[in-house]
Amino acid sequence: MQERIAKDLLSIGAVFLRPEEPFTWASGIRSPVYCDNRLTLTAPAVRNDVEEGLARLVKEYYPQAEVLMGTSTAGIAHAAIVGHILGMPMGYVRSGSKDHGRQNRIEGKLEPGQKVVVVEDLISTGGSVIDVVEALRQAGAQVLGVVSIFTYGMAKGRERLAAAGVENHSLTNFDVITQVAAREGYIRQEDVERLIAFRNDPSDESWIKGGTK
User: Fold this and answer.
1) pTM for the structure as a whole
2) Cα separation of 47 and 12, whole Å?
3) Which terminus of the chain is less hemmed in, N or C, by CB atoms within 10 Å?
4) 203 Cα distance to chain centroid
Protein backbone atom coordinates (compact mmCIF):
# COMPACT_ATOMS: atom_id res chain seq x y z
CA MET A 1 0.00 0.00 0.00
CA GLN A 2 2.86 2.40 0.78
CA GLU A 3 4.21 2.17 -2.78
CA ARG A 4 0.78 2.41 -4.37
CA ILE A 5 -0.04 5.60 -2.47
CA ALA A 6 3.43 6.97 -3.25
CA LYS A 7 2.80 6.42 -6.98
CA ASP A 8 -0.61 8.06 -6.64
CA LEU A 9 0.74 11.16 -4.92
CA LEU A 10 3.59 11.55 -7.39
CA SER A 11 1.33 11.04 -10.42
CA ILE A 12 -0.91 14.01 -9.54
CA GLY A 13 1.83 16.24 -8.15
CA ALA A 14 0.51 16.05 -4.60
CA VAL A 15 4.12 15.32 -3.70
CA PHE A 16 6.51 17.18 -5.98
CA LEU A 17 10.27 16.61 -5.76
CA ARG A 18 12.63 19.31 -7.00
CA PRO A 19 16.12 18.76 -5.55
CA GLU A 20 17.83 21.00 -8.12
CA GLU A 21 15.54 23.96 -7.40
CA PRO A 22 14.44 23.81 -3.74
CA PHE A 23 11.20 25.26 -2.45
CA THR A 24 11.31 27.64 0.52
CA TRP A 25 9.13 26.80 3.51
CA ALA A 26 7.49 29.49 5.66
CA SER A 27 10.19 28.78 8.27
CA GLY A 28 12.86 29.76 5.75
CA ILE A 29 14.13 26.20 5.34
CA ARG A 30 14.86 25.22 1.75
CA SER A 31 13.24 21.94 0.84
CA PRO A 32 13.49 19.58 -2.16
CA VAL A 33 9.87 18.52 -1.66
CA TYR A 34 6.50 20.24 -1.84
CA CYS A 35 3.42 18.43 -0.57
CA ASP A 36 -0.20 19.38 -1.26
CA ASN A 37 -2.48 16.47 -0.45
CA ARG A 38 -5.55 18.58 -1.18
CA LEU A 39 -4.94 17.60 -4.80
CA THR A 40 -6.07 14.07 -3.93
CA LEU A 41 -9.61 15.40 -3.55
CA THR A 42 -9.78 16.42 -7.21
CA ALA A 43 -8.39 13.14 -8.55
CA PRO A 44 -11.16 10.54 -8.02
CA ALA A 45 -9.06 7.40 -8.55
CA VAL A 46 -6.34 8.60 -6.21
CA ARG A 47 -8.92 9.87 -3.74
CA ASN A 48 -10.47 6.43 -3.63
CA ASP A 49 -7.10 4.79 -2.90
CA VAL A 50 -6.38 7.32 -0.15
CA GLU A 51 -9.74 7.12 1.60
CA GLU A 52 -9.95 3.33 1.41
CA GLY A 53 -6.38 3.21 2.72
CA LEU A 54 -7.15 5.50 5.65
CA ALA A 55 -10.25 3.45 6.44
CA ARG A 56 -8.10 0.32 6.44
CA LEU A 57 -5.65 1.93 8.88
CA VAL A 58 -8.48 2.84 11.24
CA LYS A 59 -9.90 -0.69 11.15
CA GLU A 60 -6.48 -2.31 11.55
CA TYR A 61 -4.98 -0.17 14.31
CA TYR A 62 -8.01 1.34 16.05
CA PRO A 63 -10.93 -1.09 15.77
CA GLN A 64 -12.43 0.32 18.98
CA ALA A 65 -12.68 3.86 17.55
CA GLU A 66 -16.03 5.60 18.00
CA VAL A 67 -15.48 9.00 16.36
CA LEU A 68 -13.19 10.44 13.70
CA MET A 69 -11.90 14.00 14.05
CA GLY A 70 -10.29 15.82 11.14
CA THR A 71 -7.66 18.49 11.49
CA SER A 72 -8.57 21.92 10.17
CA THR A 73 -8.63 22.39 7.33
CA ALA A 74 -6.78 19.72 5.39
CA GLY A 75 -8.06 16.74 7.34
CA ILE A 76 -11.77 17.64 7.32
CA ALA A 77 -12.71 16.21 3.92
CA HIS A 78 -10.70 13.04 4.52
CA ALA A 79 -12.32 12.48 7.91
CA ALA A 80 -15.76 12.95 6.33
CA ILE A 81 -15.13 10.48 3.52
CA VAL A 82 -13.50 7.88 5.76
CA GLY A 83 -16.35 8.32 8.26
CA HIS A 84 -18.81 7.62 5.43
CA ILE A 85 -16.91 4.49 4.38
CA LEU A 86 -16.81 3.17 7.95
CA GLY A 87 -20.28 4.36 8.96
CA MET A 88 -18.77 6.41 11.78
CA PRO A 89 -19.54 9.90 13.11
CA MET A 90 -17.00 12.61 12.41
CA GLY A 91 -16.19 16.16 13.34
CA TYR A 92 -13.21 18.43 13.18
CA VAL A 93 -10.99 20.59 15.36
CA ARG A 94 -10.46 24.24 14.52
CA SER A 95 -7.03 25.85 14.79
CA GLY A 96 -8.58 28.15 17.39
CA SER A 97 -11.95 28.76 19.03
CA LYS A 98 -14.59 30.73 17.13
CA ASP A 99 -15.04 34.33 18.25
CA HIS A 100 -18.82 34.14 17.87
CA GLY A 101 -21.78 31.86 18.56
CA ARG A 102 -20.89 29.08 20.99
CA GLN A 103 -17.17 29.75 20.46
CA ASN A 104 -16.54 26.09 19.64
CA ARG A 105 -13.14 24.78 18.79
CA ILE A 106 -14.37 21.22 18.31
CA GLU A 107 -17.15 20.94 15.74
CA GLY A 108 -19.45 17.93 15.81
CA LYS A 109 -20.82 15.97 18.75
CA LEU A 110 -18.17 14.63 21.10
CA GLU A 111 -18.99 12.99 24.40
CA PRO A 112 -16.45 12.81 27.25
CA GLY A 113 -14.70 9.45 27.23
CA GLN A 114 -15.35 8.69 23.57
CA LYS A 115 -12.56 6.94 21.68
CA VAL A 116 -11.30 9.21 18.91
CA VAL A 117 -8.99 8.81 15.92
CA VAL A 118 -7.58 11.99 14.39
CA VAL A 119 -7.40 12.17 10.58
CA GLU A 120 -4.55 14.30 9.21
CA ASP A 121 -3.16 14.79 5.72
CA LEU A 122 0.52 15.42 6.48
CA ILE A 123 2.91 14.93 9.40
CA SER A 124 6.13 16.97 9.41
CA THR A 125 7.30 18.29 12.79
CA GLY A 126 4.09 17.08 14.47
CA GLY A 127 3.20 20.36 16.14
CA SER A 128 -0.21 20.96 14.57
CA VAL A 129 -1.56 17.46 15.08
CA ILE A 130 -0.32 17.39 18.69
CA ASP A 131 -2.22 20.64 19.28
CA VAL A 132 -5.38 18.98 17.94
CA VAL A 133 -4.87 15.92 20.14
CA GLU A 134 -4.41 18.12 23.22
CA ALA A 135 -7.64 20.01 22.46
CA LEU A 136 -9.52 16.72 22.21
CA ARG A 137 -7.99 15.43 25.43
CA GLN A 138 -8.98 18.62 27.23
CA ALA A 139 -12.54 18.02 26.02
CA GLY A 140 -12.46 14.59 27.67
CA ALA A 141 -11.88 12.44 24.60
CA GLN A 142 -9.74 9.32 24.67
CA VAL A 143 -7.49 9.85 21.65
CA LEU A 144 -6.39 6.46 20.34
CA GLY A 145 -4.04 7.84 17.69
CA VAL A 146 -3.69 9.46 14.29
CA VAL A 147 -4.01 8.23 10.71
CA SER A 148 -2.45 10.33 7.97
CA ILE A 149 -1.71 10.25 4.27
CA PHE A 150 1.99 11.11 4.35
CA THR A 151 4.76 11.58 6.89
CA TYR A 152 8.23 12.98 6.41
CA GLY A 153 9.54 10.77 9.23
CA MET A 154 11.70 13.60 10.55
CA ALA A 155 13.42 12.97 13.87
CA LYS A 156 11.88 16.11 15.39
CA GLY A 157 8.41 14.96 14.45
CA ARG A 158 8.91 11.43 15.77
CA GLU A 159 10.33 12.75 19.05
CA ARG A 160 7.53 15.26 19.58
CA LEU A 161 4.82 12.69 18.89
CA ALA A 162 6.45 10.21 21.27
CA ALA A 163 6.81 12.82 24.01
CA ALA A 164 3.12 13.73 23.65
CA GLY A 165 2.08 10.08 23.68
CA VAL A 166 0.61 10.30 20.19
CA GLU A 167 0.69 7.29 17.84
CA ASN A 168 0.57 7.88 14.08
CA HIS A 169 0.10 5.51 11.16
CA SER A 170 0.62 6.91 7.65
CA LEU A 171 -0.28 5.51 4.25
CA THR A 172 3.19 6.29 2.93
CA ASN A 173 6.34 8.13 3.92
CA PHE A 174 9.22 10.19 2.58
CA ASP A 175 11.63 7.27 2.22
CA VAL A 176 9.18 5.22 0.16
CA ILE A 177 8.29 8.18 -2.05
CA THR A 178 11.95 8.96 -2.83
CA GLN A 179 12.61 5.35 -3.82
CA VAL A 180 9.48 5.17 -5.99
CA ALA A 181 10.28 8.57 -7.54
CA ALA A 182 13.75 7.38 -8.55
CA ARG A 183 12.40 4.13 -9.98
CA GLU A 184 9.65 5.91 -11.92
CA GLY A 185 11.98 8.58 -13.31
CA TYR A 186 10.74 11.62 -11.36
CA ILE A 187 14.25 12.11 -9.95
CA ARG A 188 17.68 10.62 -10.57
CA GLN A 189 18.81 7.65 -8.48
CA GLU A 190 21.75 9.71 -7.21
CA ASP A 191 19.28 12.26 -5.76
CA VAL A 192 17.90 9.73 -3.28
CA GLU A 193 20.81 10.12 -0.87
CA ARG A 194 20.50 13.89 -1.00
CA LEU A 195 16.79 13.74 -0.22
CA ILE A 196 17.33 11.41 2.72
CA ALA A 197 20.03 13.80 4.02
CA PHE A 198 17.42 16.58 3.95
CA ARG A 199 14.94 14.38 5.81
CA ASN A 200 17.56 13.58 8.45
CA ASP A 201 18.34 17.25 9.14
CA PRO A 202 16.34 19.91 7.24
CA SER A 203 18.40 22.72 8.79
CA ASP A 204 21.63 21.40 7.22
CA GLU A 205 21.68 22.60 3.62
CA SER A 206 24.72 20.60 2.55
CA TRP A 207 22.33 18.28 0.67
CA ILE A 208 21.71 21.06 -1.88
CA LYS A 209 25.25 20.73 -3.25
CA GLY A 210 25.17 17.00 -2.98
CA GLY A 211 26.80 16.67 0.43
CA THR A 212 25.58 14.49 3.26
CA LYS A 213 26.29 14.54 6.96
Assistant:
1) 0.92
2) 11
3) C
4) 21
User: In degrees to the nearest 10, what's the CA dihedral of 202, 204, 209, 213?
Assistant: -100
Residue 63 is given by DSSP the state T
How far is C-alpha 90 from the chain's CA centre? 18
- Please report how many Cα atoms fall inside a 13 Å half-sphere around the Cα of residue 103, on the Cβ side: 1
pLDDT tens, residue by residue, 76-107: 999 999 999 999 999 999 986 544 445 578 99
CA 110/CA 98 separation, integer angstroms: 17
Residue-wise pLDDT for 156-181, tens only, equals: 899 999 999 999 999 999 999 999 99
What are the angstrom distances between the C-alpha of 113 and each of 18, 102, 105, 118, 168? Answer: 45, 22, 18, 15, 20
CB neighbourhood size of 30 (10 A): 16
Q: Which residues pair with 54 in a beta bridge?
A: none
